[in-house]
Every structure is written in C-alpha cells, then in structure tokens.
Design brief:
The protein has 239 residues and is of the alpha/beta class. 34% of the residues lie in helices and 21% in strands. The chain has 8 helices and 11 strands. The strands form 2 sheets. The protein has a 6-stranded mixed beta sheet with strand order 2-1-10-11-8-7. The longest helix has 13 residues, at 13-25.
Length: 239
C-alpha cells in the first residue's frame, strides 16, 4: 500500500488541491496520513481542514492547531505567525475547533510513528532541520520509522547510509529512520514547490514528492485577507 504523508498545509488551498490531483492519479491501494498544521499562515484554513478530514482519520495535532485552542501560545510565535493565527481563530467555526480539540499528538501503527514535530517530546515542538538535531530524536525513538513535518524542510535521517536514488530512499526495518516530509503549503528549503512523502509499506521505501502549484493565486488571497505581506512573499521564494 502507498501511504501519502502530508504536513504543514497552512491554509494553502491551491497547494492542497494539487496534492489531491496527484493522489487521484495513483493507481494503487492508498491512504493518507496528515502530520498537522493544516491551519495557520494561509487564507483558507477552514476549507483545508474540511478537505483533510474527509481524506483521513489519521491527523496529528500541529502547533498551529494547538495555538487555535490556547491563546497563551501566541507569545511563542513569530509576529507574522501570531497575526495569522489570530485571524484564523476568527474564521474557524465551532465544529472545526471541536475537531481540533480531538486531534492526537501522534499516531502509531506497525512500528511506525507519525507526529508533527519530533518523536522524543512532541509538545516541545522541536525542529528537525539537519543531522545534528535529528540525532537526539533518533536516540530516543522507540519505533523503526518516524514521519515528521514542522520544519518545512524535507529530508531523510538515519543511523546508517541509505540506498538513495534522487528523491527516493530504500529504508531498513533494522535501523531507526526519521523522514521529514516537508511542507505542502509553505516550503522553506529555497524552492516554492510543495513537498510531501509517499511511503510504500510493502517495499519499505519512501519518496519525497515535489510539485509546482499556483502559489500566485494563494499570494493574492493572502493580500486580500490583509494577512502579513511576508506570508505571501515567502511562497514565491520558498523560505
């Protein structure tokens, strides 16, 4: 089965719809897992949340969902993120708030962990951005494989060298591996192309998928909603 692992959609409906097009074309048994941060930053949080909820029951709590519920969390956010989350609270209905309140911090199945930020202490919202800060999480992991998002930077981290070809990696059940799937709605690795992962649980391999989408349309919506200009500009630069 192919497991499509998405994260950090951040209210970007154009990017999410592009992912849906990709999923629809997969001619195989498939399902979706979402690592959280469906809302925040972008102009279509409710639409994105409803779509993801219709796709899967496997959704992790992200820090931006947590911020919807806890206004005290605002002080831990950057200014543009804080402005956006306050705007987002104002456009989300009670039904979505209740759904957010039910989201688990992590999903575990078949020796695989799905979590928004890190496997060792999910509520600390640690960023895994390189091999050095992935190391402490790998040590503490109790699963063979963990999928994370949060940093918006896609990469595969493991104790040993993996057989890799381009954006695809062959994994091992005998060694711990963390896969950062990147971000659907706000990539930050210098490319405006959206990012997510496709895991084959039969062959035990993973592919980081990058796709172009109409970010100019999302930028126009951000400006129309009077959200911080920076949140629009960064989509074009992938930062």
């Amino acid at each position: 089965m192919k497991i499509v692992v998405i994260s950090d959609i951040h209210g970007n409906l154009e990017a999410l719809n592009r992912v849906l097009e990709y999923i629809d074309k997969l001619e195989c048994e498939k399902r979706v897992v979402c690592l959280g941060d469906i809302v925040g930053y972008g102009p279509n949080p409710a639409e994105c949340f409803n779509i993801v909820e219709s796709l899967t029951g496997k959704i992790c709590l992200g820090n931006h969902e947590y911020a919807i519920l806890d206004e005290d969390f605002d002080c831990q956010m950057a200014e543009s993120a804080r402005e956006a989350i306050r705007w987002t609270r104002g456009v989300l209905g009670e039904e979505i708030r209740e759904a957010i309140n039910r989201l688990p911090l992590q999903v575990e199945e078949d020796n695989i962990l799905y979590v928004h930020a890190s496997p060792d202490d999910p509520m600390q919202w640690k960023y895994i951005t390189n091999a050095n800060n992935a190391y402490s999480s790998l040590i503490e992991m109790k699963h063979s494989l963990c999928f994370v998002g949060h940093s918006h930077i896609p990469e595969v981290y493991a104790y040993h060298a993996l057989q890799r070809g381009g954006k695809k990696a062959i994994l091992s059940k005998d060694y711990k591996t963390i896969v950062n799937v990147g971000s659907v709605g706000q990539p930050r690795d210098g490319s405006p192309m959206l990012s997510f992962a496709v895991f084959d649980d039969d062959n035990w391999d993973v592919e980081i998928v990058r796709l172009k989408y109409n970010y100019q349309k999302t930028m126009a919506k951000i400006n129309k909603a009077n959200l911080p200009l920076f949140l629009a500009e960064r989509l074009a630069r992938g930062v």
